[in-house]
Amino acid sequence: MALLEVRELDKVFRRGARAVQAIDRFSLSVEEGEFVAIVGPSGCGKSTFLHILGGFEPHDGGTMLLNGAPVRGPGPDRGMLFQEFALYPWRSVIGNVAWGLEVQGKPKAERIAAAERYLKLVGLSAFRDAYPAELSGGMKQRVALARVLAFEPRILLMDEPFGALDAQTRELMQEELNAIWQETRNTVLFVTHDIDEAIYLADRVVVFTARPGRIKDEIRIGLERPRRADVRKSAEYMAYRNRVWDSLRAEVLKAREEFK
Amino acid sequence: MSAAAQRRAAPLSRARRTALGLVLPLAALIAWELSARIGEVPSYLVAPSAIFATTWEMLASGELWQHTRVSLLRALGGYAIGGACGIAMGLLAGIARPVERFYDPVVSLTYPVPKIVVLPILIAWLGAGDASKIAVITAAVFYPTFINSLYGAKGVNRLYVWSARNMGAGPLRVFAKVILPAALPQVLAGLRIGLALAFIVMVACEMQNSRSGLGHLIITAEDSLRFDLMYAAIVAIAIIGFAGDRLLLWLRRRALAGQAIGKEGAHG
Questions:
Q1: Can you say how many angstroms the Cα of residue A28 is from the centroid of all Cα atoms in its chain?
Q2: φ and ψ at A80, to 5 degrees?
């Protein structure tokens, strides 16, 4: 059985008498060690899906099994990474990274050692005593990544983690995440609207339809790993890009139609 | 702070900033002293040198300290009780909607009422001693700390709470380790406003009904046309108010190590 099994998930937003079906019978399974990217037009419910999976929002039907056990409420078996970093400004970098282990009741020496190990992994050992306000956006997201990795969740849920970064930083962060993944082999569910990001990072790209969100397409990305940055220039990559974009394009147009 | 702003702010050294702030009060003092010496001012504008002399005299005799001590005890007593209640209830109302709904009508209705108006009632109830004054000061301090703590807790970034719960933190830990530090800047802002109000209401209470304290000193000095004495009391109030405020700001800098970065401009 797969590590994550989502079956027939439904989500309806209700405001007064109005009801909007946000997610419609959505099913997905993710294998241990797999990197799955979800792309879709904005407003399609892909972030909502991640929030439901994180245990922060209720759903209206269907089942979610992580490692065979039903998902109920937030928990450290699923590590959330947010677009807005959500670092604690009153804690130093090392304090932020060690916080998850503090919650788990690990002794101080152990959590500092673990935090230092993960800070090294993301290349920020030199900034251990800095405060988040002193870091750039890319550095903040690296700290947030170290913080999530440090409490060793079974699966990482990344909600457009690089969406708030400028284009150059975003590309460098993608390469860095790729290298880190090569080392840690975490199971990852990665939500984005950026096709290039999805193809470059993932083993499998899932295309969401416009609202109500359901699976439109699944494309297995056969690009060899480890992936170097220049894989983005290869013909094979371009073929995947065209394939995903063709599938997504109709949905983006549909979503735009709805907002008119 | 942006790089450009930092460049603009950097050349002003600490000493220069302090010097710049002293220009206006010093100029006013000198002008005041000069006009008093030339004799062109009414009698209630006593020369600064005379005020200084009186202050010094009263300090030496211990009289000024006597009044200051009594006033401080009242102000700080009310400040401690009002601040503690305001913070505790405000934070609770900020995280629990029903609690907010419960307090909101009463707080909104009584907030604009000057707290000094209830002094006669409280005197009838608690007597004319310190208790009634401390009670009025408590009420005055409660409102700004309550309201600021309420909005501080309400305004905590939802993702701070989410990421803590994601790591498995329970409600108590979320409150102590996330809500409290995240709301702290605004809680401290409320405490700062409350401190000023505590001194204001303290003086008002003492001017209305008291046999001791700096407010009492002002009233008796005015009645006997001892304006030098009145100014000595005002100077004492200004000094303890200023010292209290600076102490709070210093504590704030300690407490908000990471959150004050880039916001240190004016007073942080």
A1: 15
A2: -90, 135
> A99, B167: Cβ pair inside 8 Å?
yes
B126: which 2 tokens?
């608690």
Question: Per the structure block, which two tokens stand in for B39?
Answer: 């004799």
Whole-angstrom distance, CA of residue B138 vs CA of residue B212 = 19
Report CB contact under 8 Å: A103, B164: yes
Say what the pTM is. 0.84
| Residue B40 CA: distances (Å) to CA of B30, B50, B226 | 14, 16, 19
Q: For tokens 């010496």, name the residue.
A: B37
Query: Could you count the other beta carbons within 10 Å of the beta carbon of residue A189?
Result: 24
Among the residue ranges B93-97, B119-123, B259-263, the one predicted with the least confidence is B259-263
Cβ atoms of residues A23 and A47 within 8 Å: no
Best B2, B157, B163 residue to mutate vs chain A (most A CBs within 10 Å): B163
Using DSSP, state whether B79 is helix, strand or coil: helix
Cβ–Cβ under 8 Å, residues B78 and B141:
yes
Contacts of A81 (CB under 8 A, 6+ apart): A141, A144, A145, A148, A156, A157, A158, A159, A161
> What is chain A's length?
260
* pLDDT per position as a tens digit, A16-75: 889 888 999 999 999 999 999 999 988 888 999 999 999 999 999 999 999 999 998 999
Contact list, B261 vs chain A (CB under 8 Å): 89, 131, 133-134
Closest CA to A138 of A114, A161, A115: A161
Asked whether the ipTM of the predicted complex exceeds the cut of 0.85, the reply is: yes
